[in-house]
Amino acid sequence: MTIRTLAAEEVADDRALGDYTLGVFQSLEHRASIAKVFISWLPAPGHYLRIWDGYRLYRVFARVVKERARTGTRREDTLQYLIDAGASIKDITGLTTLAKFVINALFGGQVNTGINAAWIPIFLSLSPEWEARAFAEAKGVISRNRTSPEQKPIDILGALTLDSWQNDFPVIDLCLRECIRLILLGCPKRKNTSGADIPVNGRGEVIPNGSYGVYLIDQVHFNPDIYSEPLKFDPGRFEHPRAEDKKVPHAFLGWGAGRHQCLGMRFAKLEITIIMAYFIALFEFELASDVHGTPTTTRPPLPNRNDHFSTKPKKPGYLRYRPRSDMW
Ligand code: HEM
């Protein structure tokens, strides 16, 4: 869905090409060097491998663009929009502002969305209260939108409006917010290019002109003065009257803050809500310890907080699932 909307339909339609492209994105992400952000001349090996990954990405999209030009095919996707706007392949995959948007957007979608969407059922499988609330929510939406007794849940979900997807699933939204609080890693960095020092805390400290401000997200997301039992999966902490994320300004940074907030938030929420609502409505699921579905109550470890990229758990998590007999 992400590739189809934000890149090219041809890549989305071809499973092998889609997997390959996702693999290149993950490789690019893992080879990022924080050291190189600070010492730009550092000959980090990962940097050269990222150039190679950039070339691999270039080849994927170059082939699609050339094929469209050769056959005169038009598609309804971002790539077509960029082609129509006169962007070159370099614009789309290279180092320009356009490219940064496409690459950031695809990173966001391919990596952040997928990882958070996968953690939700893992947490839910260990939290019967929230699993029941999420199921009741999906069931409620289905029964409110049923137009005939024969209509199947899958068809009712398929006919929901955009408005309904965006507004009728507050429980899934709370679970996503809690997953992001627990899973999102890293330090947003901003360079002060204003030409002047920027005071930061009213105690005389400044971010000097030309320097970076670096902020560890954990500083707020795991702060026990803001979030009670911060390591616990507890989506209710965002509900009124608790509203822990409203205790202090910028207590929740899961979608960024200030001028560079996540541009894909609505799209990411939509994708995750759709995937989760279908899954929760149609399947019973429980956590498993292996590929054979052996039940377990041991959650895969949370990401290593010293790792500053979105990562999948080192040890894979498994879900055992079966169609819900009461929904068919
Ligand atoms: C659950 C999924 C996602 C999460 C948790 C997430 C989170 C974030 C965060 C925290 C930032 C700010 C980073 C910073 O301050 O340096 C950000 C920026 C951004 N996100 Fe997302 N994101 C997600 C999905 C997406 C998707 C699907 C897209 C594309 C449609 C997207 C596009 C972007 C872009 C373009 C920026 C950079 C904005 C800018 O620099 O002005 N994100 N995202």
Automatic annotation (TrEMBL):
<feature type="binding site" description="axial binding residue">
    <location>
        <position position="262"/>
    </location>
    <ligand>
        <name>heme</name>
    </ligand>
</feature>
<protein>
    <recommendedName>
        <fullName>Cytochrome P450</fullName>
    </recommendedName>
</protein>
<dbReference type="InterPro" id="IPR017972">
    <property type="entry name" value="Cyt_P450_CS"/>
</dbReference>
<dbReference type="InterPro" id="IPR036396">
    <property type="entry name" value="Cyt_P450_sf"/>
</dbReference>
<keyword id="KW-0408">Iron</keyword>
<dbReference type="InterPro" id="IPR001128">
    <property type="entry name" value="Cyt_P450"/>
</dbReference>
<keyword id="KW-0560">Oxidoreductase</keyword>
<feature type="region of interest" description="Disordered">
    <location>
        <begin position="295"/>
        <end position="328"/>
    </location>
</feature>
<keyword id="KW-0349">Heme</keyword>
<dbReference type="GO" id="GO:0016705">
    <property type="term" value="F:oxidoreductase activity, acting on paired donors, with incorporation or reduction of molecular oxygen"/>
</dbReference>
<dbReference type="GO" id="GO:0005506">
    <property type="term" value="F:iron ion binding"/>
</dbReference>
<dbReference type="InterPro" id="IPR050529">
    <property type="entry name" value="CYP450_sterol_14alpha_dmase"/>
</dbReference>
<dbReference type="Pfam" id="PF00067">
    <property type="entry name" value="p450"/>
</dbReference>
<dbReference type="GO" id="GO:0004497">
    <property type="term" value="F:monooxygenase activity"/>
</dbReference>
<keyword id="KW-0479">Metal-binding</keyword>
<keyword id="KW-0503">Monooxygenase</keyword>
<dbReference type="InterPro" id="IPR002403">
    <property type="entry name" value="Cyt_P450_E_grp-IV"/>
</dbReference>
<comment type="similarity">
    <text>Belongs to the cytochrome P450 family.</text>
</comment>
<dbReference type="GO" id="GO:0020037">
    <property type="term" value="F:heme binding"/>
</dbReference>
